[in-house]
Amino acid sequence: MSNDISPTLLRVIIKDFKRYCNSSRRLLDIMKKIEKGTATQSDMYDYAAKIGECLSKAYKKHLTSKTLPNGRMYWNIAKSVVGPTLTNNYTLVNNTAIQIQKLINESNNIGINPLKSTLNTDRVDGFMNKMANADNFDDVAYLLNEPIVNFTLSVVDDFIRENAKFHYDSGLKTQIIRISAHKCCKWCSKLAGTYDYEQVSNKGNDVFRRHENCRCTVLFKSDKYMQNVHSKKEYSKDELKELVKTHQLNYKKSTKIKTHLPKNVEDITSYYLNELKLGKGNVIIEKGVDIKSHQDEINTAKWLKEKFGGEIKILAEQTIEGAVTPDFLWNGIPLELKTMNSIKSIDKRLRKACKQVAYYNSNKIGGYIIIDVTNLKEDDEIIINEIAKRLSDRAKCPIDLIIKRRNNLLKVFSYRKKV
Ligand SMILES: [Zn+2]
User: Fold this and answer.
1) If you measure from the C-alpha of residue 193 to the centroid of ligand 1, how many angstroms do you get, rounded to a whole number?
2) What is the CATH number of the domain that holds 242?
3) Residue 80: is its pLDDT beyond 90?
4) Which among 38, 117, 186, 257 has most CB atoms closer than 10 A?
5) For residue 187, how far is its CA from the centre of ligand 1 (angstroms)?
6) Over the chain, what is the mean pLDDT?
């Protein structure tokens, strides 16, 4: 089209949208609450509803069968006017939701940064297609009303769902709370309530759904204090048998490895495997642990619990200068986790771990080291022998050292000084 009206339409819609937003008392109140640090997840919905209404109003003013060429919303107009403005609502809602969630996390001592929700491009495309397919725009003008608000609210729904999942996956006890708007409908009244995240975690669960004109809200909260990392339900006997079999099979592969055991080092892998207490126990994250930057530790703790059970506490780093804390306590005994990035760094990293364990060993209980060799390219045999040798050189107190690659246990060595 030589005379493309899209740029003009886009400009006036944005201009009016901004004007409506700026004159909204409700939006101003929400901004003030954010500044004061008192905003809540309900404010995310109020914000979304309001800017949804503002966009709807601006659309209705400028998009009519009279303003559109031949009374039609051609595809190129939909794509250059509706697409960017809907996406803009998505961005604004996300920015605000992130600001609010950050405040909530901070006040609960949860060291997680909020995630931006994913843009539901199917829905945006759906709008544009429906508009472009109508011979006369009046037939689809209803889309500019409630559906725009509904779409904007659904951005918050997605934000809540995705962030709740993130909190849950990070090991926090997470609950979903659906609040029914006054006299919404029977379906919504039935859905209202508080759910543990795992009850509603399946994709597309009704709890996260919103029908037309629905103003119900879905919130989540996660616990601030020490929490158990969620684990699978208790294994059934058959599952347990199967798991032990897999473990032992995996291990059989590693028994083919020829080890040259240096002084004071013993291979105690089979002892550990006989002591398997699959999944029995807890992973506890101490208050103050920054969950986002400790994903490796959390995953390793979960792995350890799944394999050997017991209580694993992930400790917050000491902020007092000079004070050192172990990464974990496993049944009360210090544990250091070291991830190896090159075979050359093994000696240095292991030496440090041994030093740390010896430092905690003032109570003479020794300690554990887990070495993760997932990132190393060398053969298991080379790595394992290198570690055994270095352990013998560097250990200063009793140590059980566990070597893992991805989720597989490679070896467990013990260091005990023979007298
Ligand atoms: Zn509802």
Assistant:
1) 12
2) 3.40.1350.120
3) yes
4) 117
5) 7
6) 86
Distance in Å, CA 202 to ligand 1 centroid: 20
Q: How far is the CA of 181 from the centre of ligand 1 (A)?
A: 6
Per-residue pLDDT, 289: 80
The secondary structure of 30-79 as a DSSP string is HHHHHHHT---HHHHHHHHHHHHHHHHHHHHHH-STTTSGGG---HHHII
CB 121 within 8 A of CB 55: no
Q: Report how far residue 62's alpha carbon sits from residue 69's, in angstroms, rounded to the nearest whole number.
A: 12
206 occurs within a structural domain: no
Strand intervals (E) in 286-366: 310-314, 328-330, 333-339
What average pLDDT score do residues 82-107 get? 95
What is the number of domains present in the chain? 2
CB of 106 within 8 A of CB of 34? no
Give the domain extent around 245: 237-415
Mean pLDDT of 367-378: 93
Query: How many degrees, rounded to 5, is the angle at CA 86 between CA 85 and CA 90?
Result: 115
- Find the range with the poorest average confidence among 5-9, 88-92, 238-242: 238-242
pLDDT above 50 (res 28):
yes
What DSSP character marks residue 317?
P
State what percent of residues in the chain have pLDDT above 70: 87
CA angle 128, 117, 183 (to 5 degrees): 80
The model's confidence at residue 262, banded by pLDDT at 50, 70 and 90, is very high
Q: How far is the CA of 112 from the centre of ligand 1 (A)?
A: 30
Residue 328 is assigned to a structural domain of this protein:
yes
Q: Are 42 and 26 in contact (CB under 8 A)?
A: no
Q: Is residue 363 assigned to a domain? A: yes
Structure tokens at 147: 């559906």
Separation between Cα atoms, residue 289 and residue 291, nearest integer Å: 6
249 within domain boundaries: yes
